[in-house]
Amino acid sequence: MSVVRSKICGITRLEDALVAVAAGADAIGLVFYARSPRAVSVEQARNILAGLPPFVTTVGLFVDMPRSEIEALLAAVPLDLLQFHGDEKAADCEALGRPYIKALRVRAGDDVAALVGAYPSAQAVLLDTYVEGVPGGTGQAFDWSLVPAKLSKPVILAGGLTADNVGAAIAQVRPYAVDVSGGVEAGKGIKDATKVKDFVRAVRAVGELM
Which range of residues forms the domain containing residue 24? Predict the structure, then answer.
């Protein structure tokens, strides 16, 4: 049996984080990008993290934020993992001295293996949908056939996933993990408990068949 992990991103409320954890999600994501409707303040993030049980990975999402600002935020919010969604180079990601994953937006014609290879120090890469001018969270899926069968890093698959299509996505891409935000929401930044539970259940069900 292959275990596929799940991350519920765009968490803005402790109650949503606890729903995700109770459903069996392995990680939650907090967005520190002011232009996102799912952005959280330092105070919100601290309150969410303080209420979490152990063994849940907390991930902070950043988009081209200056290093000094990230360092100040990390001094206040004890995140486990950093997720870079902008145009950060490997050196920028490494400069924080923390474990990180790099989000790459995929479109037809991309050499995905080369894109992944540019971040040798990343713990994993997150493959999302390319939309001009939007760093992520579009709710749109990309052509999963663009993902090579073997890459140099574990793959976290994102982009337009829902409980209805995540099984097919996992069967085709066979990622290490899947990441969802809009696909489990009642509104921007507000999670739907039933959708969260259905999503994690669907991830686990397909994992048991692999």
Answer: 5-209
